[in-house]
Amino acid sequence: MDGLQILKFLLELNLEQEQEQLLTPYDNFLYALKARETKRQYPHRLDKFLIFMALKGTIEEKCTKLYEFSKKNNANIIQSYLIKFISYQKKRIESKEISEGTLVNYIKAIKLFYSMNDIIINWKKLGKGIPAERHNADDRIPTMEEIKKLLEHPDRRIKPIVHTMLSAGFRVGSWDYLKWKHIIPMKRNKVVIAAKIILINTKINNRKYYSFITPEAYYSLKDWMDFRALHGEDVTGESWLMRDTWEKLDRDHSHRIGLAKFPKKFGSQAIGNMIGEAWRIQGVRDLLDSSDKTKKRHEFKSTHCFRKFFETKCQLKMNHNHIKLLMDHSLGESQNYHRPVEQELLEDYLKAIPLLTINEDNRLMLENECLREENKYGEYIIQQKLQEKDRQIEVLMKKQEKFDSLIQSFIDSGVLKSK
């Protein structure tokens, strides 16, 4: 090998190393994905367009081919393919294979890919033909009877999961971060009136916020943690709220065995699957018939229905902005002015607790407690008014005594004559 060939080899090697160090178009796309759920869903949505473009290979290879194709051709050609893709998906919407929201989600992923790879597309033009996302106002919340039926499921984790989600209104993804230390009981006169729950908003940069749960939800969680401790788990503040199950008894010796000592986190995806399966097992929701294209959705969502239940019930008793804060919704510009303290939010939340309590006995106890508090308050007001009347009478009597004394002094001095 002469000197020229060696130089050529070194240049090619250096070029290959530089290419290996450069980010691929797919790497740029992934870089923009922050939330765990977004990382799971966006590549799948982008792949719908890659498949439509008849690109082959892994998703990374297909993204590179799409990038090269888009760089090689002018914007009008790329946009014509996008219009064809949108038109194809609109036909699927008409045949009820997908919803308008599904197409909107496909476009979001495609738009992000082009944006992160510095390819300019006239999205305003394309947006003219994209149907508006239909928000599913038809989705209802589960009834009390349906929830009670779900709670009859034999898995011990169902009760704490359902009670907690119903009473705090958070997304299922938050379970990936919840530990026992994030549940803080709040007491009055040594009685738990609610519990504060520290949450992570998995849709907005894992932002931390807080909400509250009912006494029913708190004791449901506590019973679950106590049960785990009974079977040998070392329960601390760092223990995951939801964990895997374990064999409870040694069938040969009839005593509790210690598999509970080695807990594994039970994540949000597993929780979502378990709740979906539990709805079906309990006969509340059946599997959708894939041949029936007129029915693509259940009447209510498997886990998001709990968030909707929370919002619906709280609206009957609570300040609208307070509900938004507990769900970590944006208040818009008003959030710069409306900053209630924790105690103010708690007092408002306490009004909604009876509506967020599922067990009939627990709810009656709360309602009776509310009536007792109202009666106590009524008695207090009456007592205060009676005391005020007594004070007023006492003041009048003292004034009368002074007046009588003054008259008597005038009589004694001869200024006035006694009748």
Brief overview, please?
The protein has 419 residues and is mainly alpha-helical. Helices cover 56% and strands 7% of the residues.
Question: What report would you give on this structure?
Answer:
The protein has 419 residues and is mainly alpha-helical. The protein is built from 15 helices and five strands. Strands 1-2-3 form a three-stranded antiparallel sheet.
Question: Would you spell out the secondary-structure blueprint of this structure?
Answer:
Layout: H1 3-21, H2 25-31, H3 36-52, H4 59-72, H5 75-94, H6 100-116, H7 123-127, H8 144-151, H9 158-168, E1 183-188, E2 191-201, E3 207-213, H10 215-230, E4 249-250, E5 255-256, H11 268-281, H12 304-314, H13 320-326, H14 342-356, H15 360-412
Antiparallel strand pairs: 1-2, 2-3, 4-5
- Per DSSP, the total helix count is 15
Query: Going across the major beta sheet, what is the strand order?
Result: 1-2-3
Q: Largest sheet, if any?
A: 3 strands, antiparallel
Low-pLDDT residue spans: none
The end-to-end span amounts to 146 Å
Helices and strands, in order, run as HHHHHHHHHEEEHEEHHHHH
What is the percentage of strand-forming residues? 5-15%
Mean pLDDT score, rounded?
Answer: 85
Q: Give the class from helix and strand content and strand pairing.
A: mainly alpha
